[in-house]
Amino acid sequence: ETGVTQSPTHLIKTRGQQVTLRCSSQSGHNTVSWYQQALGQGPQFIFQYYREEENGRGNFPPRFSGLQFPNYSSELNVNALELDDSALYLCASSFSHSSGELFFGEGSRLTVL
Amino acid sequence: GIQVEQSPPDLILQEGANSTLRCNFSDSVNNLQWFHQNPWGQLINLFYIPSGTKQNGRLSATTVATERYSLLYISSSQTTDSGVYFCAVLYGNNRLAFGKGNQVVVIP
Questions:
Q1: pLDDT digits (tens, 9 = 90+) for A45-58
Q2: Which residue, A1, A43, A81, B98, could crosslink A37 as a Cys pair with Cβ 3.0–4.6 Å?
Q3: B48 vs A48, A92, A101: nearest CB
């Protein structure tokens, strides 16, 4: 059974640039969620994707957007990067969009200069 | 939104000691998960526990949903238990609300 995988693991961008982060869900899981973890804090929910559509969003601006593909993998896109976007971005997958245990990938650590 | 509070925020243990981490939450939830975050940032699943008690080796967890709290017990701690422990509650469409974590340091 393949776990959740994310890429890239680390990246550095400058303010105003755009970034795309990728996530492959665990085998058999059809729902992907994204979380942002700032230094010293717990992860914060960004949004969830189910059946290739956004299925719930946390308190994040529209410049955070995403996609889910037919194979359930997902992308997180962030436009017009700001310094405060520097964080660990975690992807989680689950068997269902309404219940069930979530499993996380290793994360993508983004630094914005 | 749901508030999740973890205590104590920081804990230093001598190897071999036992400890209890507490998680309080402000509203009814669908379920609850405990994680251990490794030094590389990955969240490792420890327990998925809506109520009752579960054990896995030296770790055990108890959730009392009616009183809105959960406890994580670490027995005979080892240096490999060091790290941050997160409690997270599942609500709505299977989204997680996390606490700020318990930073645990086990010294030999």
A1: 999 999 999 999 99
A2: A43
A3: A101
- To test the contact with chain A by mutation, choose from B54, B63, B96, B100 the residue with the greatest count of A C-beta atoms within 10 A, namely B96
Strand partners, A90: A35
Neighbours of A60 (CB within 10 A): 15
How far is the C-alpha of A85 from the C-alpha of A101, rounded, in Å? Answer: 27
Q: What is the pLDDT of residues B7-17, one digit of tens each?
A: 999 999 999 99
Q: Supply the DSSP string of B25-71, one letter for each residue.
A: ESS--SEEEEEEE-TTSPEEEEEE-SSEEEEETTEEEEEEGGGTEEE
Task: Quote the CA–CA distance of B8 and B108 in Å, as a whole number.
Answer: 21
Tokens of B21: 């981490």
